[in-house]
Design goal:
Layout (H helix, E strand, L loop, with lengths): L6 H13 L52 H33 L3 H22 L5 H34 L1 E2 L21 E4 L2 H12 L2 H8 L6 H56 L14 H11 L6 E2 L1 H8 L11 H12 L7 E2 H17 L7 H22 L1 H13 L4 H37 L3 H13 L1 H11 L4 H32 L7 H19 L3 E3 L1 H23 L4
Antiparallel strand pairs: 1-2, 2-5, 3-4
Helix pairs in contact: 2-3, 2-14, 2-15, 3-4, 3-7, 3-14, 3-17, 4-15, 4-16, 4-17, 4-18, 4-19, 5-17, 5-18, 6-7, 7-11, 7-12, 7-17, 8-11, 9-10, 16-17, 18-19
Length: 581
Amino acid sequence: MANKPTPLNLLLLLLLLILCTTVHGRLITTTIPSDGVVHDNLRGPPTFLLRFSSSSESCEQTYGFMPCTTTVIGNLFLILVYGYLMFVAANCLSDGSELFLEILGPGIVGGLLLPVLGAFPDAMLILVSGLSGSTETAQDQVSIGMGLLAGSTITLLTIIWGSCIIVGKCDLRIQDSHAIDKQDTKGFNLTGSGIGTDIWTSFIARIMALSILPFIVVQILQVLPSTSGRHLSVLISLIFSLLLWISYCLYQVTHPWIQKTRIAYAKHKHVIAGFLRNLHMDDVSGRLLMDDGEPNREAIKKLFTRIDLDKDEKLSTAELRAVIIGIQFEEIGLDENDALEKVMKEFDTSNNDFVEVEEFVEGISKWLNEAKRSGAVRGAGTHAIKALSDFLLHTKREHDLLGDQILKDQSDEVVEGVENPRWACYKAVLMLVVGATITVVFADPLVDAVDNFSTATSIPSFFVSFIALPLATNTTEAVSAIYHVSQKRLKTASLTFSEIYGAVTMNNLLCLSVFSALVYFRELTWNFSAEVLVIVIVCIVMGAFASFRTSFPLWMSLMAFLLYPFSLALVYVLDYVLGWS
């Protein structure tokens, strides 16, 4: 976790900021050429020249008293100061929400509060970028909001994502590319070294890929011929993104329950696979399945007779225990007693604590059919034994990818994390209030400083906000991600990449909803085709890799890094060379 600023440091920073109010630069004037036409430097190729020509006009102070300047160096200083304050706000919001998670546990806090508070600084900056001033001013400054929206998403999926692979890399097994925890002996091998995640991380990546749908909807509808139709498309995108955001929040709230259900089913399949494999090995005829793949009821009855040692025509737990000896249930967090309980629950339909012959036949037939549906067995004999052995290994691998240990560790942390819940609750509320207050107060001055810096340098405000603002709002996530992934374990890597994909999803849905509402209700023009395109491209490329893989070789980090300059170059070419906007 990043070092927290002390109250004294914040006080000194604010005093230094107030001193800046006594220094006012001069506004850069627009050069009027001999043809009498004023050229708009903000939408033309940037000159990157620091021009300081005279002007009688001074800058406008935010709130009437916040410091401002018209010089390049002065605005750069203000961006750094305001950006640091936004970083402090993001840090307070993150720490406060995590403290609430320790107190109240997952569910609404983990599924709703944490993601919303994580996106709050970005959403507030986007909101103030077009909230004040005339329509013309809002239309000019709203590109800062789009720059932050695109910059945050692309920074998370390129620079932070790629850095996590480099920092958290482990050796990848040759046979299945599975990452070996805490083993890093291959150095910077592009294919033999990398990182692994559980299967839930892939599911979250798929949700992230779907979160670009509102962008696609609004962009497709921009082909409508009328201005009112194009404006209506922004409203449609707003409603669609809000619906997806609500659905995502509901998924996050119910996610622990869904995950536990899937893990329980994986354990159930593991018991089935091990039990059937041992029965096949014990069945000398090898004919529990007939040639047509249907359960051989007569062979199952003969097997029942062989297991029924005391010949009382019913199986006790002791007799069933002999069948499951040798199955390594401890690998999936079960022991023999747990497995026996599951077998008895499935087979003992009469609830008399014994499995009778018909119950045994029905239970084995049911499990054989379930194994067939899973593709584990399609025949009889030694082929079926090998298939069931492979099925057993597959269920173990599936259980590992589902991350049962992660759930257990999270439960332990929730139980042991807080000693004084009441004081911790007060502290969490205070941190959230401080973080939210700093965000609300300094968001507008930061946007103004970015706009003034853009004017002073002739660098389009989109590029300034794309590069600079995510450094302020995403630094907390970046530091936390690098720290956790450096532990080089499947557990921490899965949590880290899940948080990255979750942050991108929240950015694409909540922040886009704020941006769309701003454009619609302020009656602004949607002219962000190039910016939307780069968001869609990066999310599709990274989402395609992350959705269907659980291991990521080192070479993928290089691909991620290259997508960042590619995005900037594509926006520049489309907007300032081809004139898309």
